[in-house]
Automatic annotation (TrEMBL):
GO cellular component: plasma membrane
ATP-binding as UniProt keyword: yes
Recorded family membership: Belongs to the ABC transporter superfamily.
One Pfam family recorded for the sequence: ABC_tran
Any GO MF annotation of the entry: ATP binding
GO annotation, biological process: amino acid transport
Entry keyword annotation includes Cytoplasm: no
Protein name: Methionine ABC transporter ATP-binding protein
Species of provenance: Leptolinea tardivitalis
Length: 325
């Protein structure tokens, strides 16, 4: 579990003070995957670097695994850090060491018994699906394989918490999905708590249980994914919902975008609309996705007939989001 209370971080740059974090408070519960999303410069990296004390906060309190890391003396902080794993956008592997030797590195630092190292490395390689690459060098690996090594290395000292700093930002969409699936699998199998920072909504959609939006060093919104996508006033709901390119149409019909979620996504809503309101519905574009526990669909449709407004009202009363284009 991670608790961040009123965290502030200023950087001094020549005669200027830059406020990177301006009173951030958040709690990541044990066993959950928590995403922090924000634009470039929002303070995401600073936040994650403060949590493992790579960066010293200006003020505020951080508790990780029940220990207040902000007040630990150096020796104890080193020990506490062993219970916090970290993975990076550019993997940070040692190029002169093989995969197995990279994973051995943190074990050497903690003086892990020599006779047990080989077994532990094999166990970690199997956990990330890279058994056959033990003797390869990083230059011989794909980006996804490099990140798997990064994950194995981060898990070597059996941390309860994993911090992920844009871990999939350098990867193509397919590899991103496979790394996110691995993280979700490790989260479930090991009970690993994951805090990740990202600028990719796709990452939030695919694996996060909860999300916080960081802007100019402050959290402007947080909640579960399920909560946020169903809240019309949510700032990131629109970005989380399925995307598609709206088509311009020139007919007389009314063009609307309908967002279906929860139970409504599984009902034949449009068919019953056509039957009950004597209207014509023409589907122009659409997208259906699983976000969190929900199936969410977005459709652009053209509706024509005498009872169009009554039909749209009916959809809204069913809890669907309806926007005129
Ligand atoms: N070492 C530093 N010295 C001075 N200013 C810094 C330092 N690190 C970050 N900053 C500033 O703090 C603010 C937050 O930066 P940070 O890197 O945490 O944001 P970010 O959300 O991670 O951005 P990005 O996605 O571009 O990495 C920015 O204004 C940045 O310029």
């Amino acid at each position: 579990m991670i608790e961040v209370i009123d965290l502030k971080k200023n950087y001094s740059l020549k005669d200027q003070i830059i406020t990177a974090l301006d009173g951030v408070t958040l709690t990541v519960e044990a066993g959950e995957i928590f995403g922090v999303v924000g634009l470039s410069g929002a303070g995401k990296s600073t936040l994650i670097r403060c949590i493992n004390m790579l960066e010293k906060p200006t003020s505020g309190t951080i508790v990780v695994n029940g220990q207040e890391v902000t007040s630990l003396p150096p020796a104890e902080l080193r020990k506490a850090r062993q219970r916090i794993g970290m993975i990076f956008q550019h993997f940070n592997l040692l190029s002169s060491r093989t995969v197995a030797q990279n994973i051995a590195f943190p074990l050497e630092i903690v003086n892990y018994p020599k006779e047990k190292r080989k077994d532990r490395i094999a166990e970690l390689l199997s956990l990330v699906g890279l058994m056959e690459k033990a003797n390869a060098y990083p230059s011989q690996l794909s980006g996804g394989q490099k990140q798997r090594v990064g994950i194995a290395r981060a898990l070597a000292s059996e941390p309860e918490v994993l911090l992920s700093d844009e871990a999939t930002s350098a990867l193509d969409p397919q590899t991103t999905t496979s790394i996110l699936e691995l993280l979700r699998d490790l989260n479930r199998r090991l009970g690993l708590t994951i805090l990740l920072i990202t600028h990719e909504m796709n990452v939030i959609r695919q694996i996060c249980d909860r999300v916080a939006v960081l802007q100019d060093g402050r959290i402007i919104e947080q909640g579960t994914i399920d909560e946020l996508i169903t809240r019309p006033d949510s700032l990131i709901s629109r970005a989380l919902l399925p995307q598609f390119e709206k088509q311009t149409i020139s007919s007389e019909a009314t063009s609307v975008t309908i967002t279906f979620m929860g139970e409504a996504a599984d009902q034949p809503v449009l068919a019953s609309l056509v039957r009950n309101y004597d209207i014509d519905v023409n589907i122009i574009a659409g997208n259906l996705q699983k976000i969190g526990k929900n199936r969410v669909g977005k459709l652009q449709v053209e509706i024509s007939g005498k009872q169009v407004n009554a039909a749209l009202l009916h959809l809204m009363n069913l809890g669907l989001r309806v926007e005129k284009n």
